[in-house]
């Protein structure tokens, strides 16, 4: 082992690379949303085809994170991480040269594979490099990077799309990916191999992939009956997967982490609930600001940016605090604050509500997210031994994607019931307000359940 791998400067270099990699997907995801209408017009894509630009990436990333987490333990985290950055950079660059929508959707699916390789290992690498007493701070800095990327995405994406063209969102992201890739080659000195020579569970991976595919696709087409059928099929496959993994000598996922490790199980459940209850907040508030308050997109973005800015500022401090105080207390406080903020918005927001009041509530949401995110991730990674770092890292990524899909499924179902198939315009503002009230109450109740799972994790 090289002599400098225990030094502070080495740890900081690895953290910089991990943060740079973590910024890629949230920046591109939040910025590409603004470019979707232009892409759809250029390639003559309908609404369903347009949605697959997002769904194709989501599916491949969610399906492959756990298998790549296992492969990282067998082949080395550095190899999987660098391979993922390389694949992500190449496919992202190629996305800027596509000539039709089908080609773009295909490349987005391959891009999701590279993302799965990166996000199944980046948190594991941070956990491998930083000792427990410093891990929370590192997780907080990594979370802050994600929030800054989310905050910068809409404004920069709009500027890039308007002045250069949507292709340059992909070109710029590919350039950042290349910087992270070169830095990884130079700076990373270890492979972090925990299970060298062990076989890979192909059968378990296939069952898992089918289960996650059925779950996420089913959630995206709710409330259609086929969506509920796919969710039931997914539950059956997940039961079969758990049964198979419990008998497998070298499982793709160590099921005992959920069965025997209460901290890991409850922390992962809290993360799932958090993502399921918070992902569509910006989407719904954006509709409220533009369709009910009649703000333009730029003004609405300035209101929404309050939340991620506060998250990015406070996340390192919350992470550092979780190194000194049990993470469950900090994370539970954050979840409770989110629940209260959502309930206040649900009960008191009206078409005549003050924007200042809304921004204050978004600020409280930002505090709650900061208090929950990095301490909860710290709790997950600290609850497993070194051999399971990649698996735990992959689990957090999968939980995030499944939670986001679940939240959009809930939102879509409420919109379908209240508004129906009508386009969301100022003419349906009454239905939109009712949708926001119902959805935020559901999310507040979910967060209340999340407080219980968070505080009882130990």
Q: What would you note in describing this structure?
A:
81% of the residues lie in helices and 0% in strands. With 458 residues, the chain is mainly alpha-helical. Helix 6 packs across helix 16 (355-382).
Strand and helix map with partners:
Layout lengths: L7 H36 L3 H29 L1 H19 L5 H19 L2 H8 L2 H32 L3 H21 L14 H19 L4 H23 L8 H5 L1 H17 L2 H12 L4 H8 L1 H16 L5 H22 L6 H28 L6 H30 L10 H27 L3
Helix pairs in contact: 1-2, 1-4, 1-5, 1-6, 1-7, 2-3, 2-4, 2-8, 2-17, 3-4, 3-7, 5-17, 6-14, 6-16, 8-9, 8-17, 11-16, 11-17, 11-18, 12-13, 12-18, 14-16, 15-16, 15-18, 17-18
CA-atom Rg in angstroms: 21 Å
Q: Helical proportion? A: over 70%
Shape: globular
Number of strands: 0
Summarize the structure.
The protein is mainly α. Helices cover 81% and strands 0% of the residues.
Features:
single chain; 458 residues; mainly alpha; 18 helices; 81% helix; 0% strand
């Amino acid at each position: 082992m090289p002599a400098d791998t225990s030094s502070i400067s080495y740890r900081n270099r690895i953290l910089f690379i991990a943060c740079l990699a973590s910024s890629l997907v949230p920046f591109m995801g939040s910025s590409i949303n603004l470019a979707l209408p232009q892409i759809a017009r250029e390639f003559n894509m309908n609404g369903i085809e347009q949605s697959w630009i997002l769904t194709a990436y989501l599916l491949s990333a969610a399906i492959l994170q756990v298998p790549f987490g296992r492969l990282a333990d067998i082949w080395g985290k550095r190899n999987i991480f660098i391979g993922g950055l390389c694949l992500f950079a190449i496919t992202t660059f190629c996305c800027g040269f596509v000539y039709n929508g089908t080609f773009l959707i295909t490349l987005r699916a391959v891009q999701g594979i590279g993302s799965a390789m990166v996000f199944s290992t980046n948190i594991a690498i941070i956990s491998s490099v930083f000792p427990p007493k410093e891990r929370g701070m590192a997780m907080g800095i990594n979370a802050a990077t994600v929030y800054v990327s989310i905050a910068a995405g809409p404004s920069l994406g709009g500027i890039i799309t308007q002045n250069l063209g949507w292709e340059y969102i992909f070109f710029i992201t590919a350039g950042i990916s290349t910087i992270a890739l070169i830095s990884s080659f130079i700076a990373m000195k270890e492979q972090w191999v925990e299970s060298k020579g062990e076989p890979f569970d192909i059968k378990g991976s296939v069952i898992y992939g089918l289960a996650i595919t059925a779950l996420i696709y089913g959630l995206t087409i709710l409330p259609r009956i086929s969506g509920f059928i796919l969710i039931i099929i997914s539950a059956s496959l997940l039961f079969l997967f758990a049964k198979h993994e419990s008998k497998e000598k070298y499982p793709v996922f160590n099921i005992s982490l959920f069965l025997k490790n209460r901290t890991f199980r409850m922390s992962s459940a809290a993360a799932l609930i958090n993502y399921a209850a918070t992902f569509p907040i910006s989407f719904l508030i954006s509709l409220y600001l533009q369709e009910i308050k009649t703000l333009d997109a730029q003004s609405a973005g300035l209101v929404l940016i309050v939340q991620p800015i506060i998250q990015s500022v406070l996340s390192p401090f919350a992470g550092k605090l979780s190194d000194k105080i049990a993470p469950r207390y900090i994370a539970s406080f954050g979840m409770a604050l989110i629940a209260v903020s959502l309930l206040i918005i649900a009960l008191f927001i009206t078409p005549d509500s003050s924007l200042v009041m809304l921004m204050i509530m978004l600020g409280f949401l930002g505090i709650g997210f900061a208090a929950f995110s990095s301490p909860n991730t710290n709790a997950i990674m600290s609850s497993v031994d070194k051999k399971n770092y990649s698996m735990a890292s992959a689990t957090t990524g999968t939980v995030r994607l499944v939670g986001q899909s679940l939240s959009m499924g809930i939102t879509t179902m409420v919109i379908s019931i209240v508004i129906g198939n009508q386009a969301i315009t100022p003419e349906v503002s009454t239905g939109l307000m009712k949708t926001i009230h119902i959805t935020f109450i559901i999310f507040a109740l979910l967060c209340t359940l999340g407080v219980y799972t968070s505080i009882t994790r130990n």
